[in-house]
Design goal:
Layout lengths: L2 H40 L4 H16 L2 H11 L4 H4 L4 H4 L2 H26 L3 H9 L4 H31 L11 H12 L2 H30 L12
Amino acid sequence: MNWDVMIQNLPALLGAAVTTLQLLFLTLLIGGALAVPIGIAAGSQSLWLRWPIGFYISFFRGTPLLVQVAIVYYGLAQFQFVRDSFLWPLLRQAWPCALLTLSLHTAAYTANILRGGIANVGAGQIEAARACGMTRVQLYRLVILPQAVRTALPAYGNEVISMMKGTSITSTITIMELTGTANTIVSRTFAPYEIFIAAALIYLAIAWSLTRLLRLVEWRLSAHMRSAPAAQT
């Protein structure tokens, strides 16, 4: 084990980890925003709405993320109308393509998780909210979504960690995140063992931090479910 190689290249790896986190948080932000309406639509009674959403979720859950990245980055350029569109200056670059693919990917998983959370909301609560005169928007905003999010949060934590590791696939389209930077350093130093162990430890530290953060959020959201301390006499 050559510790000097690890220490010398640690700043470059930590800098690349920042890129990984930027890509991850933007992906979670966009994917989460997309997942809410998709998750609601997935549980819709309308077949015309539920079937396309079901196909979208099945596609992104049933195909490898690497294939999805390749389709967006290499495949979209094959269509003339894409090259003629105003989006082409973005879609010809690796970063927007990676962000688009990862966001659509995590939106599918998150929507499916949220759909399960929505299905677990008691029918009695929904009927009571309707009896109080709540509109559909108020019903989802005040009753259904808060409970669905709290129920889905543990499963969503697994999705966050999975997406953190999934960002490594973007190195195949020239994005220099943590894995891509590690590969570049290995090609220069010929020390794969040391460099990839250092990268793995950084990934592990990120995963541990995200897990602790999500547990804290889960603990805060479940405050009302914990018994109050007994009054002292």
